[in-house]
Design a protein that fits this description.
Layout (H helix, E strand, L loop, with lengths): L6 H5 L7 H21 L8 H38 L5
Length: 90
Amino acid sequence: MSETIPASVATSKRRPPRTATVLRWVHLLSGMLISAYFLFMPEDGWSDTVNTVMGQGVVAFVAWTGIIRWQLPRYRRWRARRRASSPSAV
């Protein structure tokens, strides 16, 4: 006995996630990594290598993904509105 699949289910395909969605999750998960780093810090601290990786690598990565995800689109909209409202220099 074969089951029939509705046409809407059979033809629907999952679209790949948008870049903004991927950046948001990368940013949030990296931030959680930093939180876990400070939450589970031992009494005598981490080794210098771990501190360097967290301090320079992960924090910079979180900052840049935050800028790319949230601040850059805001800046682009602001710049587009500014250009649209200014008289053209012809």
